[in-house]
Amino acid sequence: MQSLGFIGAGNMAEAIISGLMKKALIRAEGVGVFDIRPERMEHLQATFGVGTHATAREAVSSRDVVILAVKPDQILKVLADLKDSLCGRLVVSIAAGITLKAISQVLGADARVVRVMPNTPCLVLEGASVMAASQACSDQERRTVQEIFSAVGLCLDMDEKHLNAVTALSGSGPAFCFLFLEALCDGAVKAGLPRDVALRLAAATMRGAASMVLELGRHPGQLKDMVTSPSGTTIEGIGVLEAKGFRSAVMEAVVAAYRRAEVLSGNA
Hints:
The chain is α/β, with parallel strands linked by helices. It is built from twelve helices and eight strands. The protein has an eight-stranded mixed sheet, sandwiched between helices.
């Protein structure tokens, strides 16, 4: 794999570096980082042995692929400051809501840019990411970025028009899952289980259910029916969820998050 430079050394940068090294896709000398927080660079150097740079320009000029892992409200300024140094390099942005068009307006229409929407489970190598590339990117460059983010979970290559829906689903989705997990745990505590046991069982149950969908390739409704015996406990609980509008509430939550993503990206 080509050498990587990270501008921003936060949790997502750390997750990507960790995933690539665990899968032996890159060596420590192939990675360099810059962050305005020296302690973050020191942490990544101590943990993974990667190189650190005194300036962002130095980090960019010595690497083939540059991953911009900075906050959305900072990225356009960073791009403008590094415009000359980024010329000819593959630029990857993980800033939510910042479109390929906005980036290209700073770097130029011929810039090779890939926009990626990752999510927080990348931190445990179980991410769900979607990427969209500018027209200037080659097929090989698209494959390179997909390989990078596949190191921390699932990575799909799609048209950019889908990224706001992706933000609402896999970007915001972990928070919705955590809310449901917490509610499952609280229900079990109310039924008499110790909280630590309830939390472990609830988390393992959610992980197992998701793995069944991904590994068996069956529709969630079919898998639900496998658990739902006539007059049993499961159908009793499902009846309550349906009566309380569980499905419609989840659907509306995703749509609300999508609408907000549209506003933040300037599409509404």
